[in-house]
Amino acid sequence: MTPPQLPSLPMSGAVDADGHILEAPDLWETYLEAQYRDRAVRIRKDDDGLEYLEVNGRPCKMVRRGAPSSLGVMDQLGGFTYQREPTGSGYVDNASFGSMDPTERLQRLDIENIERAFLYPTLGLLWEPECEDLELSMAYARAYNRWIVDFCSDSGGRLIPIAHIPFGLPELAEAELRRTAKDGAKGFFAPPFIWSRKAHGHPDHHRIFAAAQELGLPFGIHPSFEPHWAAPSRFGKMTGKDTAFFQNVALGNVIREGFTTLFQYGVFDLFPELKVIVLEVGAGWAGYWIERMDAAYGSPLGQSVPLKHKPSDYFRRQCWISGDPDERSVAGVIPFVGEDRFFWASDFPHSDHPPEYIPNLIELVSLLPDSARPGLLGQNVLDCYGLS
């Protein structure tokens, strides 16, 4: 197979802080424990030949029929084409180069002049809001975590596995975090909603943060689909295809809410070595958010916060943000917040982010002071994960 003609970075040291893979269609049938295998996550076809996602033996309600075939089409949107042996599955046949195969992914990194990539799921952002059986949800996560470690295992450390840890059952979440750390995961993420409806910073989850601190694993909050009860509802139901623009633009709010609960519940004093990462909702908001938190903390409102110092102090000590390469305004925020707090990410191969991430990154780096360039390109994320 001839790789597509992709753009290349002219500078060295780049690390993709939030790339994605398309999971193998048979991942859960292969990696799930035997007692759950009959309820595996699967991609099936309906009578019209449209693929759909099946979770716990039922078709997904939030993932429309036909959607799996468009989950990894970033290359097509960017005009980067190559010939793939057809399989009859749109999910597989439309997959961008490097999105499903680790050898291809390494080739892609070489072409683009990217040294390493931190890898997050695709189907894993879709099935969790459909799975109310929390033990099954943890089984799905365990299967994915085993698979992603295997996916990255022969890459010489260039492909970096990030574990999926649902928070719904904290005891099982802690156990899986400890297991997957031994297996080789370098960090973990949770989505912006939790089935228990308890905030990320809630004391029920402190055992997870204690384990993360002990293991040295950074914790990220990453966007995902959400159950209808968790989605914004002040304007009525705006969760369908016809309001996809609104949902995509507004999703950053739910991530910021989960992130802010870590301050509200005093997580950063309780776990002073915990590392927290905000993912895939841009980064230009950081300056305003920090100043707003400091202002609220310094007012009578701050009496509800069990923290010894201003939120900005903890942010600059324990928090990082992964921004988008096309977010040029972040160049003005980085010097104010701290040059060592920011990463860039491609979101490859998802279609909701621009396929021109390499040219956009080149432009963004050119807007930064020289001192901030190596950090944003890759040094900051490697330092955060202890992989420098």
Could you characterize the architecture of this molecule?
The protein has helices at 27-31, 74-77, 90-93, 102-112, 124-127, 134-152, 170-183, 206-215, 244-264, 267-270, 286-297, 311-318, 330-337, 357-367, 373-384, and strands at residues 14-20, 42-45, 51-55, 58-59, 114-120, 159-164, 187-190, 219-221, 276-278, 319-323, 342-344. The longest helix is centred in the middle third of the chain and has 21 residues, at 244-264. By secondary structure, the chain is α/β, with parallel strands linked by helices. It is globular. The two termini are 33 Å apart. The strands form two sheets. An eight-stranded parallel beta sheet has the order 1-5-6-7-8-9-10-11.
What is the compact description of this entry?
By secondary structure, this protein is an alpha/beta fold. It is 38% helix and 13% strand. The chain contains 15 helices and eleven strands.
